[in-house]
Fold these 3 entries.
Entry 1:
Amino acid sequence: MASAVPPASSEAFLDWFRQKTETTWSTYPAPTLEYFTKLGIWGCKWEPGTRWLGGLEEEHIAEIERLWALSFPPDYRLFLLRLHAVDRPLRCTAQAEAQPYQQILRDAPAFYNWLKDSAVLRTRMDDVVTGLIFDVEESDLWRPSWGPRPTTAESRAQQVRELVAAAPPLIPIFGHRYLLAEPCQAGNPVLSIVQSDIIVYGADLRSYLLTECEDFLPIDQAQARREADTLIQARFAEYTAIPFWGDLLAQ
């Protein structure tokens, strides 16, 4: 049964979000390899009994910002203060190294834990650059706004690194979803980035959370998706104006 969702990325919304997700996870079936095999799918599932850790202290957030040279927008800062991350990983399918056609289960982070997931967070940040470089070489990617295309692979890679370094920073939050860090204000979009395939996955953090966890929330999913799509379309001109990332959205 659908329930009323608090209307803003506020403490009330995050408390509602925590209570509803934890209620669903408390009775969630344990993910098994047989489940994925039976459905013939690859993917990830949540562990039963998953709970939110309960947030970071302000001094922890300040130290994380210093270490990563980031400034967290107010709505994400509030998310870190109230929720931060969950207490157990996702269970995901993967290929067995010794037997390429055999599925195995492995752990993967859910919402990133800034105190424990440093290596994964660094990989996610690096993935943005390496994915673009891959498409530059394998898919002939080169946007006119990037200037003349360099003549060597090494110089092209270097130019992509410089362009990304000069672009508004991205904050990894879950999988290949990234929150735009600048301007440092509430309401920035969440982007899904796989190589040069970039889409707006959430018009803001609240909209993103409702989309990412829609299966665990008592909401009308069809209506929520319509509202999310309408909001993204209404703001799309703003998104395409974002330096560097907006030009890739406009492809």
Entry 2:
Amino acid sequence: MPYGTAAVRVEPLAGLPVIRDLVVDAKPFWAEWASVKPWFVPAEHVPDGAMAPGSREAVLVDSALGCISCGVCHASCDIVQVGGDFLGPAALNRALALVADPRDGAADERLRVVGGRRGLDRCHYVQSCGSACPVGIDPSRSIAALRRLRIRSRG
């Protein structure tokens, strides 16, 4: 190997069943994603000035947007690697982007899902998801923010 070069190891995306060679079955990843209802549901009544630029809500939503759904955070997550039924960092990051938005009407439903046994409390904040993200999103920060929103919603 020439001086200054490093070996590159190419493997299938971890945490997902391998179909063949580098091809993985992404169905488990997308099932977790779908379980948080990842689409916008318009709220019936939106307060005036909801999501003002620079507001706390806007900052939370903006920090979670931009995910390209590549699954790298999922593959790097130690909790996903040990098996089980953790929703995973990508799904929880997506949930934050919607729960924090006051214009979305499904926040309570999403908070019930992410607060369940498969959700937020399974994260151990190893933060490998954030260091692996190719677009610089930190899902562990999103998970912490989602935990705070869940606590506030309880009263």
Entry 3:
Amino acid sequence: MARPLRIEYPDAFYHITSRGNERGTIFWVQKDYERFLSYLESATDRYGARIHCFCLMPNHYHLLLETPRGNLHAILHHINTSYTNYVNARTGRVGHLFQGRYRSILVEKDSYALELSRYIHLNPVRANLVRDPLRYPWSSYACYLGREGKWDWLQRGFILGQISEREREARRKYRAYVEGGMREGIEDPLKKVVASTLLGSEGFVDWVRQRWVKKISFHREVPALAKLSMRPDLSSIWEEVKRDFGEKTEGSRRVALYICHQLSGLPLGEIGKFFGGIGPSAVTQNTRRLLILLEKDKKLRKAVQRLKERLSE
């Protein structure tokens, strides 16, 4: 199973989704919802999480949260593990409650927080649980309208502040904004996510790529990393190899296969397909043989190294 890319840094802003195992129920009775909310509160106390929005659905939940300490993993581990232990103790069940890894989307908050908050608050309406999101008791929507004050750890100021600096006016206009989405229908903002990881402008994506993705060690089981790391594509590598080593020589093909294996970040099967449908094992075997040859041939080794450096710039 492919691993998600986790990008963590101070003050990062995320949309989080976590579903029940095999899409099963995770909240059964009122006490379950209340207990989960207590873990959101303790995450703000212990780990400094800033929770801007939430919606707890019977078989999954949504959060908009900010991590001043850059500790997303610790926050979600606390929430999901604590709640799983509670459910297992209450029901006598064992094993995982949530389906694999939670989904985290790193968000450019100034551009998308408002839109995502509406998307989250309208979840119960889309699921036909209620007609009016204000009637759903397990989301932060009522708090945004000033109808519920018991969750004092909830951060409403940033999103409401995007509408108006005056709180009463912000609440009134926010309700109109959400209800307008109900009447007109809204597009899922998560369709704009880049590499299953980022939601934001081109400038934001480039900033994250340059500032944070470059620091993450490459791993073939994390496909999003290859998509975001600006690695050269197969065609570019092949063209550069042909320019340096000749267009129709067996040596250029061996070098191209080797460099694609080393630099592209793509699965071996995809590399093999590009080179005429050879299997993953053939790609690996080619790399082993070329490494032996490079140990013996100093001139070839220097030429390949220069090419790798040029492609990595």
